[in-house]
Specification:
Strands 1, 4, 5, 6, 7 and 8 form a 6-stranded antiparallel sheet that branches. Strands 9-10-11-12 form a 4-stranded mixed sheet. Strands 2-3 form a two-stranded antiparallel sheet. The chain folds into 3 domains: 105 residues; 110 residues, no CATH class; 143 residues, Diaminopimelate Epimerase, Chain A, domain 1. The chain has 414 residues and is of the alpha+beta class. Helix 1 runs parallel beside helix 9 and helix 5 runs parallel beside helix 8.
Length: 414
């Protein structure tokens, strides 16, 4: 990052320093031998201002490119799990709304000059008039998450959760108003809320972007370069818009209750522990433990909120033949606990929901880097060669324009 912002400083200083020097060495002089400002020598040449504007514009563009390149490699996508808290149904209602229009209001006399003569003409006048109309709203259906954010939904989803939670109630009424002879319609607002049971939780999984400066380094925390086959076989789920917490490879299946349970578990541990469980399940007859290295290489490591359980399963019995747990945690106790509990045993997900919740609550702590340099002063970043070339050309271009523009305007000014 030092290189990126050093370039910005250099490109900004070039036009300022160059214009000051040229202004002092090539002052403007009037026909009377003095500057227009009453000074023998004046650095306030128009070239000073014009050169700075031109070159700072180029400098800003180069800085923007540098910033984009410098930060794009630090941004990663991760999936956040949380839950929706309630839904609402708004019946149709009407509202009297005011608006303004411009209407003709006679003429006024305007004086103008044409061919050296003063003439008059009549010009239409307008006045602002307030009018009213009746707007119809709704019906609307909304879903609210636990943070209070609202999104649109439909009647089918509302009725589905209303039937599961069985607690719909009338919370308020939008009183209808109307303009003129239109009929006023009032609409009730109904609400149904989560009943606080695990079984009826409404989980949400959304893809978010975060910055991980350490993961982008070239000399620490980095995975090996993946092959084309690995990138194709194991794309990072969040990068392709996949929020499913269970990925299967080979002839191993997953129960619907497993996916639903993990989504709900992630909705619990997401807000409280900033953790997300992901299961990567492999057919043990076809895939070995070496696939873990291939996945991590394709992903460039796990995300900071991910606790990933890699497991090779028997096709028929779901017995765990091999298991590896990966995350960004410094304390890997949770890795050893899960590996020890399931190696050689049947992998149970939905049946052990309390186990997963308790294990995460007791042993997980998301790794954070609040200071990008503290304790990591040795990290290095690779800079694309074409960006190095662009910076060099940008500095030369800005310097050249500064000199040329200044010289031309100074020459014309003297």
């Amino acid at each position: 990052m030092f290189v990126f912002y050093t370039t910005a400083v250099v490109c900004t200083l070039i036009p300022i320093v160059a214009c000051v020097i040229l202004g002092l060495t090539h002052p403007i002089k009037s026909r009377y031998g003095r500057s227009p400002y009453g000074q023998k020598n004046s650095a306030f040449n128009p070239a000073f201002i014009i050169s700075i504007i031109v070159c700072l514009g180029l400098s800003g563009g180069l800085t923007a490119i540098n910033h984009q390149v410098g930060t794009s490699g630090l941004k990663y996508k991760e999936v956040w799990g949380y839950r929706n808290s309630h839904l609402q149904y708004w019946e149709k209602w009407t509202e009297k709304v005011s608006y303004t229009v411009q209407v003709p209001d006679g003429y006024r006399t305007e004086t103008y000059t044409s061919n050296g003569k003063t003439r008059t003409r009549q010009v239409q006048k307008y006045r602002t008039e307030t009018r009213y109309r009746t707007d119809t709203h709704g019906p609307y259906w909304y879903v609210f998450d636990q943070y209070g954010d609202r999104t649109n939904t439909n009647s089918g989803e509302y009725n589905s959760w209303k039937g599961r939670w069985k607690n719909e109630k009338h919370v308020r009424t939008n009183i209808g108003t109307s303009a003129g002879m239109d009929r006023s319609i009032s609409g009730k607002v109904f609400e149904t809320r989560w009943d606080n049971t695990f079984e009826n939780m409404y989980p949400v999984a959304k893809i978010k972007t975060y910055k991980n400066i350490i993961r982008a380094t070239t000399n620490t925390f980095s995975q090996r370069e993946p092959t084309e086959e690995e990138l194709k076989a194991y794309p990072r789920p969040a990068d392709v818009g996949d929020t499913c917490p269970i990925q299967c490879f080979g002839k191993v299946g997953v129960k619907g209750s497993d996916t639903d349970t993990i989504n709900k578990i992630n909705a619990i541990i997401g807000p409280t522990k900033q953790c997300r469980l992901i299961f990567m399940l492999f057919d043990a007859e076809k895939y070995s433990r070496g696939e873990v290295d291939s996945v991590l290489a394709a992903w460039n490591g796990t995300n900071k909120n991910e606790l990933v359980i890699f497991a090779g399963l028997d096709r028929a019995t779901r017995e765990v033949k091999w298991i590896s747990v990966q995350s960004w945690m410094d304390d890997t106790t949770i890795h050893s606990l899960i590996e020890g509990d399931f190696q050689g045993n049947t992998l149970e997900i939905a049946e052990k929901k309390d186990y997963w919740i308790d294990t995460v609550n007791e042993n997980w702590k998301r790794k954070e880097f609040t200071d990008e340099t503290k304790g990591f002063g040795y990290i290095k970043f690779s800079m694309p060669w074409h960006i190095v070339l662009l910076n060099a050309l940008g500095i030369l271009l800005i310097g050249g324009i500064t000199v040329v523009v200044s010289k031309v305007i100074y020459h014309k000014s003297n």
